[in-house]
């Protein structure tokens, strides 16, 4: 089995595309304007779907609240963690933990996407 993609239901596709673009992802329409996909350098796809599309697929769809999952984006360096975090914050998005040197040997920071999903940025300190 191969984990091929992670899907996120978005309240505002334009804001989500802008946010994830700040993290280096470039989205393309995949089957229509309500379903966008970006492929990471490792081949994993991140898919963004509008709430309207989900309701077309399943009329009983209710967007879940809360999340027990975090997307973690590895950066090239500790300086890049700082740079990406600053760019996200300056663009008006929410930071939940400013960059810091974690005891497990990584530069780490936490932010939220436009739908409130937790996102971590990290890089090895060595």
From TrEMBL:
InterPro entries (alphabetical): Glyas_Bleomycin-R_OHBP_Dase (IPR029068), Glyas_Fos-R_dOase_dom (IPR004360), VOC_core (IPR037523)
Domain VOC: 2-124
A Pfam family assignment: Glyoxalase
Record-given protein name: VOC domain-containing protein
Organism annotation: Cylindrotheca closterium
